[in-house]
Fold this protein.
Amino acid sequence: MTEYETARHVVDGRQQLVRTSKESVQNDERLLIVTDDDRSALSFPTEDNTPVTSFVATTDLTNSSLALFQAHHSSCQRFDAYQILRRPAALRVHLCTEPRPADEECQQETDRSTLLAFKFPFDGSTLSELETVVSSECRSRFGPAPNGGTN
């Protein structure tokens, strides 16, 4: 799948960037948002207006669905997704962390937190599962990544 939109929020330090009050969710490091109830259960404990909060708030969930991923990583690493697959009842997202380019300054002992949001152009009410695969490289062994991030 290559037709989707993204938003990203990165902060220094280890922070929880999104939470859900839904009791059925056991891991709020990856969230599938397909209804207004799902969205209203979200809270963003950091700044009120970030690229992700406005992205989530303005998404029309009658024709779209959202997936949110948060991770803590070294500031010398980049957290991103490199491949997204839609299956009949599941969405599989390949996430990755890889070293930043050598010309970017960073401090290995400093942590960052990243929140990635993806908007998909379909009603996600038929999806029952959000699968993730995590890799140490942001490219597919099956070929180049169609979409890559810069943060």
The helical segments are 36-40, 51-57. Residues 51-57 form the longest helix (7 residues). The CA atoms of residues 22 and 41 lie 6 Å apart. The longest strand covers residues 65-74.
